[in-house]
From TrEMBL:
InterPro entries: DUF4988 (IPR032149), Pectin_lyase_fold/virulence (IPR011050). Residues 1-20 form the signal peptide. This is DUF4988 domain-containing protein. The keyword Signal applies. Residues 29-213 form the DUF4988 domain. Keywords: Coiled coil, Signal. PROSITE patterns: PROKAR_LIPOPROTEIN (PS51257). Residues 26-53 form a coiled coil. The keyword Iron-sulfur does not apply.
Length: 686
């Protein structure tokens, strides 16, 4: 209910603002806010209740037609129940024979008005507030699941009242529920009277049947109808597809056939495949389990299936006990083995960081294979999951590396050689790539006359040797890089001793006894990354952007911006150098950073050193640190320029990475997830 919570938060905020303006007493404010929270909770409960009831109702409406063998036919429920728990006489929890557990509540709960939902007995359509909808309560031949409505509440900004919304399927947009005059149906509280459940009149267990009586018009008034669902403990059918084979509610079937376990209780069983698929189920049971095998049809669609399913994408397994049935269904689709390359081939756009990759701007993209996994020349390369690509050259001008996995899973690249930028208007772009080897440095601009238009890493992992840098560019020219964008990456510093110095971007150094400090005119975006020492008791003497010491440093252009936002730093101490250092004239933003240390030595660290310059704009916002052992003082400034004041980063009251409180602190994989209290600080990598 994310949408609901968004509206609820807005409503609470408005209420607080109004109460603040009226100048009420503190205890009155507390009472009003608590009352508002109670009403919001009530709305959430009512929405949850309504959707649970509809899910239950939709399931029991589905029927199965049985041939009696004498020219007559009998309709029985397609789904049966193995067990019913009566919770309090009005609430029932039923375990269906396909393994699903659903709850039904009869009567009243809360004090809000719900939409009138019913089923037209003549058309089989859902009725909403007395009118037919275009949606079927049951499938066309009654054996197929119908369209299941789902309800939601939203805030009408013009009236500041909540109103009901409905949709029939996840792919459809939410629509307002309206009355006969096409007005929104608002959620209104009824004074002194509980809101009645308008859909169901009664439910009870009668011997071996669960009997549900419902109002056909959904208005809480007669006429009614009933559904009788058999309770059969020794009839069941449950399909257990491995979780890793599921995506977006579909069982993804690869080029070869795929199999899943089926739990079966009953007399006979068979499987139905959709058009274009083949499905089979083993003839014998082992410990009450069989094997379901599904693959794309290689001959006529459905040729090897016992029947053709009505639904175009569902495999159905049915088990009977006498005249009753247990039915289990799973949606199937072909697994996408080359997702981003297909998007590329079809002329689509692929966004990597802040760069768009497509055939028009980056032609001749190539999908690597196990037979051809070596990268030795410039180009755009799509790397399949499970294959390790190998970089065989040190020199590249334009290189784009993209994981071809449709779920965004990373691929491994063997980068035995460092990346040496060559030529002009070069590019180094990578998405969802784990670079296997640590390098010294990882990449460099090693001569004058070389430029990189884009240096972009998105969702990658890079390992940097102890005391070394990610990029050395001091041998190049001023402004040799046009765009620096790092988002969602993990930078692992393989420290072999404590407090070894490393720089992410190094534009200052000595070459042939001459000190070079390069100017930079590039927007630098460092967003949602993790920087960490791979050894828990070794810290990094680190900096992100280094343009040089004192007034010999390079100048950062006044027209550009350095943004360091939503990053987590583990034992990353900016002590001998600031996190950003140079003659900074452009804008600098430090926002939403989480800095953690268990350093054995107390140190004074700083975020920004601009030397004699004054930045155009500086933002320090939502910064937090935690020192597990020695005190690490983190000041905003190393030398405060005119017009600014010195401030220190606030300390957290508890350890954000306390694993006993639910945090994740995984140095091997670079996964650092703080406790719930600090979930909004630092990198939002989950």
């Amino acid at each position: 209910m994310n949408c609901v919570m968004k509206y609820i938060k807005s409503y609470i905020l408005l209420a607080l603002m109004v109460l603040a303006v009226t100048g009420c007493k503190q205890e009155d404010l507390k009472d009003d806010v608590n009352a508002l929270k109670d009403r919001v909770t009530l709305l959430e409960e009512q929405v949850k209740l309504l959707n649970e009831n509809i899910a239950f109702f939709s399931k029991v409406l589905v029927c199965q037609t049985i041939d009696n063998g004498d020219g007559t036919f009998t309709e029985v429920p397609a789904y049966s129940i193995s067990e019913v728990l009566v919770n309090d006489g009005t609430t029932f929890t039923a375990k269906f024979n396909d393994g699903n557990v659903l709850t039904l509540a009869i009567g009243s709960k809360g004090t809000v008005t719900t939409p009138q939902l019913g089923v037209n007995p003549e058309t089989g359509k859902w009725m909403l507030n007395g009118s037919d909808t275009p949606y079927n309560a049951v499938g066309a031949d009654s054996s197929v699941d119908g369209d299941k409505p789902e309800f939601n509440i939203a805030l009408d900004n013009s009236t500041r009242q909540y109103y009901w919304q409905v949709r029939f399927g996840d792919s459809e947009p939410w629509q307002p529920v309206t009355d006969a005059e096409d007005n929104k149906v608002y959620v209104t509280e009824v004074d002194g009277e509980l809101a009645k459940d308008n859909l169901f009149k009664d439910a009870e267990v009668e011997e071996n049947e669960f009997v549900l009586t419902y109002y056909t018009n959904g208005d809480g008034q007669d006429p009614t109808d009933e559904v009788r669902i058999p309770i059969i403990s020794d009839l069941s059918c449950v399909i257990n597809v491995p979780e890793e084979d599921m995506a977006d509610g579909y069982w993804e079937i690869g080029v070869d056939e795929s199999s899943a376990e089926v739990e079966i209780k009953g007399d006979h069983w068979f499987v139905i495949a959709p058009h274009g698929w083949e499905a089979s189920i083993s003839e014998t049971l082992t410990d009450g389990k069989a094997t379901l095998t599904v693959k794309k049809s290689t001959a006529s669609a459905g040729l090897k299936s016992r029947a053709t399913a009505n639904n175009t994408d569902e495999v159905v397994v049915q088990v009977n006990k006498g005249m009753y049935w247990a039915v289990a269904k799973v949606k199937v689709r072909e697994a996408v083995t080359s997702y981003f390359k297909q998007v590329y081939d079809q002329g689509g756009d692929i966004t990597v960081g802040n760069v768009t990759i497509n055939k028009a701007t980056y032609p001749d993209g190539k999908l690597l294979s196990t037979a051809e996994a070596t990268i030795s020349a410039d180009g755009v390369y799509f790397i399949p999951q499970g294959m390790e690509a190998v970089i065989s050259s040190t020199d590249f001008n334009k290189l784009v590396l993209i994981s071809d996995n449709p779920k965004g899973e990373p691929v491994v690249v063997d980068n035995t050689n460092l990346f040496n930028a060559t030529g002009t208007a070069g590019e180094f772009i990578a998405q969802n790539v784990i670079f296997k080897n640590e390098k010294n440095p990882f990449m460099q601009i090693d001569a004058t006359g070389i430029t990189l238009k884009n240096l972009v890493l998105d969702g990658c992992k890079v390992t940097i040797a102890s005391g070394k840098n990610f990029l050395n560019a001091f041998k190049g020219d001023d402004n040799s890089i046009g765009n620096i964008y790092l988002e969602g990456n993990r930078f692992a510093f393989n420290q072999t001793a404590d407090y070894q110095a490393s720089r992410l971007f190094n534009f200052s150094g000595t070459f042939e006894n001459v000190l070079y400090s390069r100017n930079l005119s590039a927007d630098v975006s460092i967003i949602n990354n993790v920087f960490y020492s791979t050894t828990n008791n070794y810290t990094i003497n680190a900096t992100i952007l280094f343009l040089g010491n004192n007034d010999t440093a390079g100048i950062y252009n006044a027209a550009n911006t350095v943004t360091i936002e939503n990053n987590t730093f583990i034992n990353f101490l900016c002590a001998s150098q600031s996190m950003v250092r140079g003659r900074i004239e452009g804008a600098v933003t430090f926002r939403n950073l989480l800095l953690w240390s268990n350093s054995a030595t107390a140190r004074n660290t700083t975020l920004l050193n601009v030397h004699s310059k004054t930045p155009s704009v500086v933002t320090f916002e939502n910064l937090l640190k935690f020192d597990k052992d020695k005190e690490i003082t983190i000041s905003y400034w190393s030398g405060v320029p005119s017009g600014y004041t010195q401030t220190k980063v606030e300390a957290a009251s508890s350890d954000p990475f306390d694993v006993s409180a639910g945090a994740t602190f995984d140095l091997e994989n670079g996964v650092f997830i703080p406790t719930a209290e600090y979930a909004n600080y630092g990198a939002q990598q989950r």
